[in-house]
Amino acid sequence: MITLRGVVKRYGDIAAVDGVDLEVPPASVFGIIGKSGAGKSTLLRIMSLLERPDAGEVRYRDTRVDTLAGAALLERRRKMGMIFQNFNLFASRSAAGNIAWPLEIAGMHRREINRRVDELLEMTGIADKRKARLRELSGGQKQRVAIARALAANPEMLFCDEATSALDPRTTKSILALVRDLQERLGITVILITHQLEVVRQICGDVAVMDQGRVVEQGSVAAVFANPVSNAAKELLHDEQ
Questions:
Q1: Torsion angle, CA of 83/84/90/93, rounded to 10 degrees?
Q2: SS3 (DSSP) at 167
Q3: Ramachandran angles phi, psi of 50, nearest 5°
Q4: What is the pLDDT of residues 92-135, one digit of tens each?
Q5: Whose CA is closest to 168, among 146, 196, 191?
Q6: If you ran DSSP here, which 8-state letter would residue 213 be given?
Q7: Of 1, 139, 157, 217, whose CA is between 20 and 30 Å from 29?
Q8: Does residue 148 surpass a pLDDT of 80?
Q9: Is residue 63 over pLDDT 80?
Q10: pLDDT per position as a tens digit, 38-57
Q11: Residue 139 above 70 pLDDT?
Q12: What percent of the chain has pLDDT over 70?
């Protein structure tokens, strides 16, 4: 479980995250939605330990993690994966080379790296793209490489930052199906931020709605979408129509 209590993050006079309380169940797919500027990306960076909050606490299970530093912080970060809208892949490397990168950084033996890369290529449905360069891959294939790389070190959590926003609807559906399958197979926790409500409907069990740096509504996707309480959720659903 990921627990946030009173989390605040300010940039100058602007509170990007303003007193957020949040609980993400373990081994779940949890969505965070909101309009542009609502604070979603900042909250995700805090949850994934890429940024420290100015106030409040972040806990994984019963352990406080927002105060970690040095080797302890690096060790904790190795237990999580990240996928992004723009893939963040190395153009100079093949698909296999991109997946291998975090394993190389961790000092894994080359033979074990090759075994793990082959396993991940198969798992993400791109076993035939091992030697392909990025220019030879479609957007969906690039995102599959990014997912494989994010899973290389067997993370406990996978953070997705608008991971399907650059993809067409058909590819988006296939990527979401892959993420759901991997989540169930591996038993990991997936935290996904998006402004696309259809993405949340397809993959998430629970959702939090953000507005002006605050979580203004949280609950099951079915309950929030069927009977929204906050103005932010009502506006998102209205804009979708």
A1: 40
A2: coil
A3: -85, -20
A4: 999 999 999 999 998 999 999 999 999 999 999 999 999 999 99
A5: 196
A6: T
A7: 139
A8: yes
A9: yes
A10: 999 999 999 999 999 999 99
A11: yes
A12: 100
Residues 218 and 208 sit within 8 Å (Cβ to Cβ): yes
Instruction: Specify whether the CB–CB gap between 158 and 191 falls below 8 A.
Output: yes
Angle at 232 between CA 230 and CA 171, to 5 degrees: 125
pTM of the model: 0.93
* Mean pLDDT estimate for the chain: 94
* Radius of gyration of the chain from its Cα atoms, rounded to whole angstroms: 18
Tell me the average pLDDT across 133-144. Answer: 95
* Euclidean distance between CA atoms 182 and 185, whole angstroms: 5
Distances (CA, A) of 34 to 207, 220, 226: 10, 16, 17
CB 2 within 8 A of CB 25: no
Taking the C-alpha atoms of residue 172 and residue 163, their distance in angstroms, rounded to an integer, is: 9
For residue 53, what are the contacts with CB-CB under 8 A and spacing of at least 6?
Answer: 7, 8, 9, 17, 46, 66
Q: Could you tell me whether strands 55-60 and 157-161 are parallel, antiparallel, or unpaired per DSSP bridges?
A: unpaired
Q: How far is CA 32 from CA 4, 63, 165, 173, 237, in A?
A: 14, 23, 14, 18, 14
> What CA–CA distance (Å, rounded) separates 175 from 138?
13
Contacts for 65 with CB less than 8 Å, ≥ 6 apart: 49, 58, 59, 76
